[in-house]
Each structure stands twice: as structure tokens, then as C-alpha cells.
Amino acid sequence: MNASPESQRWYHGITRYQWTVLVIASLGWVFDIFEGQIFVASMNEAMPSLVPAGTPQGTVDDYKFITLAMFLLGGAIGGVAFGMVSDRIGRRKTMSLTIVVYSLFTALSAFSTEWWHMAGFRFLVAMGVGGEWAVASSLVAEVFPAKARARVAGIFHASSVLGTYLAVAAGSLFIGSEAIRDWSVAQGIPSLPWRLGFGLGVLPALLIIWIRRSLKEPESWEQAKSRAQQNTAEAMGRIPELFRGALLRPTLVGVTLAAVGLATFWGAHILGKDLLRRDIERQVIADDSLILADPPAKDEKEIIQANLPYIKRWEMLGMLLVTTGGGLGLLSFGPLCERIGRRPTFLFFHLGGLAISLIAFQWLHGVTVLIAVLPVFGFLTLGMHAGYAIYFPELYPTRLRGTGAGFCFNFGRILVVPLLLFYGRLRRPVNDGGWGLSLENAASLLCLLFLAGVLVLAFAPETKGRELPQ
């Protein structure tokens, strides 16, 4: 007796071509994340080197968060624009365009000489980054059967951790390399280490060759295109339709969920690694045996600068631990939402993210404790992001899927921009016009946004077990 479809493993019957689509979409997302995270891995070194000597640290921090805000803004514009383009000209062509954009401008970031150059390049990089996600998530959802959709979409989004690993490797091998630092200083180009990391960004462009040779447009997209040609009411890629009739509620829910996730990602998740760096810096300052400067450094800033490669490796370890936990969280979202539903799974990660963030930022100290807890922190603060790749494409018909998923995920970025600028103001010293909050208190304040995600879930439609709208 043959097993019923319900009792079969989710991967039963998946074709070689479908696996190829998943691999290509995931690789695009891996490099997509690398292009974003290479700045996170290097901003503590890159931004100070792009401002005049003696610039107050509070001002440098403001520039960091302005640059992060520009990245979010670019991602929002690119995600919405390329999502619309993918509905109109197809997934394959649009994916190639997005990869060209983010590869080119990440590599050009290596040539920045002013902080605003970096901010401008990050805006352009993000246009490709936001667009690639919208296209790839729609493509994966359309190619795989319903029984496998949540699992493969979770795998697709979880592949992002590999991009962060690449950024961690670049941060450790280039920025954290004593040999490269010493050689670049001797050559009069002390900023070379972080510039090398950005230079790697050109490599993903090679993926386009495989995309052009291996992918074809999904059958559902071809059918939607044919219907659109015969009936103007079935036109593809129109943003106004996302706010009409039955699509209004899921659009508002999707945008809000994405805004909460992105705000807590940039305002809390990525700062987990800085908790480990904080405690290592304190150890270095307190322990004379770790001071590598010759002659010995005289103040705390000089001590930290003299031990930068050592400190940087610990910071990258923190980033690795948070990312690893986050990857497990992303992989867990698909199986969990297949078992208990999309809404309960989002609820679990929002409440868990709030709890672990407050614990980590307010009460955890000590290298050993942080090494143990940071993976849990990453798991609970990042896992919900896989839900966007699973949930958003399920909310829209094929002719609006790229537009809708791209709009939800990326318009959320626009809502986050003022929050990041506000975060920079929170950290700036009081005598410099800010609030003077510590890293821990500022991050804890932003973590309260998880509660907004909890509230909006009351209005979220449940899509578990449903076929994709056509």
C-alpha cells in the first residue's frame, strides 16, 4: 500500500530541478547577507578611519547608525522595486539584476574615503540585497509543493547564517590579522584590512552564470503572465492592489511583523557580539600582561587600539555564537510552524526574543557566561525571520507575490530607519546632545518592540495547510 501524501516525508518526490532552485536561491541569499554583514563585522574599524582624527566617539556612533539606516532605506526601495519587476519580467532575470547591484557596490565600498561615501554605497548595496530576497523567496515558494514549502523556505532563509559566517571569517582573517595590520600600517594604508573584506563582495557576481544557465520561470508565473495579457484586471506587480479588499489586512500585518523583526535585528541582535567584546576590553584594560604595545599604552583607548587584533577575534567569536544560534532558530521555524501553525510560532519567537534580550543586556556579564548564552540569544532573536520567507509569499496571489512579499519585508525597513537614528541619539553622550544611555540600556529599550509583534499577531491570518493563492 502506498503511503498517503500526508504521511510521506516532506522531501519525498522533490525533483533535482527543485533542489537546484533551492541551492541557487540560497546561495544568492548567502551572499546577500554577506554584503550586509561585512559592514557589521568591520564598522568599528571602518567608520573611525573615514572621519577626521579627534572626532568624538558619539559622532562616530551616529555615523554608524546613519549608515545602517541608509542600508535599510536602500533595501526598502530596492525590495519593493525589484519585487514589482520580478512580477513583470520574471524571477530569473530579476535575480541576476539584484546580484549585479549588490556585488558591484559592495566592492566599490572598499574605495570609500569619507563616511558618507560608505553610507551612499551601503544604500546602493541594499537595493540589490532587498530585491534579491523578494525574488528568491517568491521563486522558492512557487517551485515547491505545499507539503515542502515551509521546510524549504525555512532552509532558504536559514542559509543566511552562512553569509554571516563569511563576514565573520573576513573580520577575523583580515581585520583581526596582526600580520595584515602591521604590514598595512608599515605601508601607510592602515585601513587596508577592512577594505579587503569589502573587496570580496565582487565574487557573488559569478553566481549569475549559473542562474542564467539553470533556472526557468515558474509555471505559475507563466500562467499569471498569460492571464494578465488577456485581462487588465489581472495585471501584475501593482502596489495599490496590496491595500485593497482582502489583501489590506495581510499587508499591514506583514509590514508590521517585518518592521519589528528588522528593528530588533539591527537594534539588538547584531549587538550581542558587542557584549563579548565589552567584557574582553575590560579584561585587556585590567590585565597588563595582555598589553602588546611597545612602548606601553597610556590610556584605555590606546590599550584597546594596541590589542585590537586580539579583541577583534573575540568580537568575531561573539558574532559566530549569535549567528550559529540564529541559524538553528531559522531552521526550527519551518518544522515548528508546520506542527503548531504560523501564528503560534511567531508568538513563541517574539516572546522568547523579548525575554532573552532583556536577560542578556541587563544581567549577563563574564566571558564564560556569554559564550554559553549568546547562541540561545541568537536562536530566539533571529528565528522569526525565517517566517517572513514562509509566510509572506503565502499571503498573495502569483501576480502580486513578488510585489507583496517584497513590499512587506522591505517597507518594514523604512519604518526602522528613524528607530536606528533614534538609537544613535540614545547612545550619544548628554553633553553632545544625546541621552547618554549605555549599549545595554539602549538595546533593552528597543527590545520592547517585540511586544508590538505580539499584538499584531491577533490580526494575522493563519495559512498553515493552505495552497498558494493563484
How many DSSP helices?
20
Give the biggest beta sheet: none
Low-confidence stretches: none
Top-tier CATH class? Mainly Alpha
Topology:
Elements: H1 16-49, H2 57-89, H3 91-109, H4 115-143, H5 146-158, H6 160-175, H7 178-186, H8 192-199, H9 207-214, H10 219-230, H11 248-267, H12 272-286, H13 300-306, H14 308-340, H15 342-363, H16 367-382, H17 385-391, H18 398-427, H19 439-447, H20 450-456
Task: Describe what this molecule looks like in 3D.
- The protein is an all-alpha fold and about 475 residues long.
- It has a single domain, classed as MFS general substrate transporter like domains (Growth Hormone, Chain: A, Up-down Bundle), CATH 1.20.1250.
- It is about 75% helix and about 0% strand.
- The protein is built from 20 helices and no strands.
- The chain is globular.
Task: Supply database-style keywords.
single chain; mainly alpha; Growth Hormone, Chain: A
Summarize the structure.
The chain is mainly α.
